[in-house]
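pinging the channel bc i need a second pair of eyes. not urgent but kinda urgent?? the chain im working w is below, pasted from the shared doc
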Amino acid sequence: MSVARVTEISATSPDSFDDAVVQGIARASKTLRNVSSAWVKDQNVKIENGKITAFRVNLAVTFLLDDA
């Protein structure tokens, strides 16, 4: 039997939503072991002077807990 945990993170990219997801998963994988999936819960943009300056995603990241 496996047991998983879900944690929420936010990631930002100046390029795209896709890049924000990639950056978020890459960073989460440095700290969390056994990352198995992620769900994009929300997307939004930062706007300055009428232009998009950042793409932000909120992710629910699932990782498997180590067996004792």
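so DSSP finds one helix and three strands in the chain. and The two ends are 12 Å apart (CA to CA). — does that match what u expected or am i reading it wrong
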